Amino acid sequence: MSSALDQTKPLVLASASPRRRELLALLGAPFDSREAAIDEAAAAEPARAKALAVRARAATIVAADTRIRSEGDELGKPKDASEAIAMLLRLSGRTHEVITDVAVVDAAGRETHFSVRSRVRMRTFSRDEVEAYVATGEALDAAGAYKVQGLGRALVEAVDGCLANVVGFPLCHVYEALRRAGRAFPQRPENACQRHFAFVCPVWRRAQAQGRALRDGASYPTWSETAATLVRLSGASHPR
Fold it and tell me: Which of 6, 65, 101, 106 is catalytic?
């Protein structure tokens, strides 16, 4: 594992998502971003399908796909404004899981696939608030019809577990997976992430330990039933 290796063999993010590009960039190493031309709704494993769609010789590929699980049902991106409103009213006043599947393909073609989970508690909000938020257009490009890093933050009461995972890219886990794939980075994920979001992360040690013990096919809850892992979101303006 060396910096020289990273400079001669490319790192590719299989995504056009601005939020995933922004989070990967926090690690301080150069990478390419390529949109994967796949039908996410039709793919059994969208993150893996994205990684394989942009696979290139000698490159390390990382891809992610985020979904919402509420009362046993999984919610992806809404098809239109009406579905976005229905999704958000369903989530109002309740706690749901955010699951991000991550796939890494190293330069030799070896694959690793895992998922990271956080819990999100939503405020109880009115239909008028939901309609005002959906009218901004932000809801249509997000699993569950909200973006915690955008105006959707106003709808969220608290995050239990990894905040970066709710944004769509669990940085500590990704960092460790890419290190296993032979990459090196000048920045530590726990430091970069906390600076970026301007908060004190209560779960970075847990996330780091999970990342270092990654197993292919495993799923990692980032909250704890016995320790304080809840981050209350405050200071957000409600959409008007």
Answer: 65
